Amino acid sequence: MDVNSIVGCVTFNISLLNKLILKNKLSRCDRMNTSDKIYHKKIGIEDLLHLLKQNMLVYLEQGAAEPRYIIQELINNADKIPSINVLVTPVPHINKMQFSYDENCDHWNIYSLFGTPETKHQIRSGRVKYVPVSTSEIPNILRKTLIPDIAIIQVSPPDSRGFCNLGVSVDTLPIVIKNAKMVVAQFNPRMARVCGQSEIHVSEIDYFIEEYSPIIEFSPPDPREKDDIIAEQVAKLIPDGATIQIGIGRIPNAILGKLKDKNDLGLHSGLISEKMIELLKSGVITGKYKKINQYKMVGTAMLGTEELYHFSHQNSAIELHPVTHTHNIWLARDLDHFISINSAMEVDLTGQVNAESLDGDQISAVGGQLDFTRMARLSKEGKAILALPSTSKGKSNIVPQLSASVPISIPRSEVDIVVTEYGSVQLRHESILERAKKLISIAHPDYRTQLEDWLHEYIVT
Question: At residue 18, does pLDDT exceed 60?
């Protein structure tokens, strides 16, 4: 298949931005024609404040589609809002959660399903109540445990059929919308209309606030020399025709940069980034051998620049689906050669992984890492790869044992392949002793003797 027919060859420029804005922006007359009821659903911030009642559970959408205008107005008017419960799933470095450290919001009780560097002190103090959970389990929390009274989200305005689009973040929103007692949406003409399971009919929205504002953008830092070496090691493990899952950041970007010579890769991931689009445009990612969502780049959200969002607008090669699809481990039966690629902060000599805590602070979460690890292990010829530098801030990331205060993000029974700049090792089905020896072989040379001494004292003897 001609790559141009897959990609749609969308070139970003100012005229495209203007066309998108004009196409999405609905006049009052358009809205009236779309639905007889939509006009009286329009409210302002003061109206929203009156909807918030004591002890309500308020879900605030996060990720790139965070309705920042509404959230900022809630913070500005915090003194008019009673004690409420707030539920969020923030993305590290993206969602700042100002309300978690603004003293005017001290009477809000905050529950977070993800840790971030920005909220580590609030989590430690108890100001933010962190709930550890895998991404695949979040829908059950939203259905059974933390059921929102009000969900505040951001979408595109409705089209001529009356459908809004969830835009750059689908994630758990279909479950949130279905279970919340009330849905308040920010209609933003700048929101891209993305293909996949991403539409919501205006009848499912109780009230809306119109606000034209930029979508959150993110550019990860450039890879370091060490990251490039790790990336080369990982690239060797990815065969042509494989379907990959990978995150966003220095090491993921370095890895994606080393895949330019691969052929017919597929993508089934959590987040979609700029680097992935580069591989789509160049014909490296085609999805040719995927048994499900063939020829489609699949994720549950995207995070990047305005160029990424506009490239994805109505681009049939890119689909966003809810986590009930992207993180469903049983899809592994239809994803041969599925390779998950994730990072970690520490791995101990038995294979236990810490991917969420640094110096005792919760700065991330297990998220989808365990889900994708299990998918890769269930997939025919699948691989679950953990890529990390051998050291950070003068300390070894290969450690004898994880400390008692550190969460185990990936149990040793689930670990498969570990990669550092010193090589890669296969741990699946290996004994504790063999695992330890292999991990020491890819530790930084300055720490190998110390690790070997521990091994001989506590395991060999």
Answer: no
Domain ranges of the chain: 27-210, 225-460
Check: CATH 3.40.50.1100 for 225-460? Answer: no
- Rounded Cα gap, residues 322 and 299, in angstroms: 8
Q: Name the nearest CA neighbour of 311 among 219, 200, 193.
A: 193
Fold matches, 27-210 and 225-460: yes
How far apart CA 133 and CA 138 sit, in angstroms, is 7
Q: What is the dihedral of CA 199, 202, 203, 206, to 10 degrees?
A: 120
Query: CATH for 27-210?
Result: 3.40.1080.10
* Of 315, 4, 15, 28, the residue nearest 157 (C-alpha): 28
How far, in Å, CA of 29 to CA of 41, rounded? 14
Supply the angle between the helices 432-441 and 445-455 in degrees, to the nearest 10. Answer: 160
CA neighbor of 220 nearest in space, from 381, 104, 94? 94
- pLDDT reading at 14 higher than 90: no
Tell me the CA distances in angstroms from 75 to 69, 103, 121, 154, 190, one per residue in order: 10, 10, 20, 17, 23
Over the stretch 46-59, which tens digit does the pLDDT of each residue have?
999 999 999 999 99
Helical packing angle, 225-235 and 250-257, nearest 10°: 50
60-111 confidence digits (pLDDT tens)? 999 999 999 999 999 999 999 999 999 999 999 999 999 999 999 999 999 9
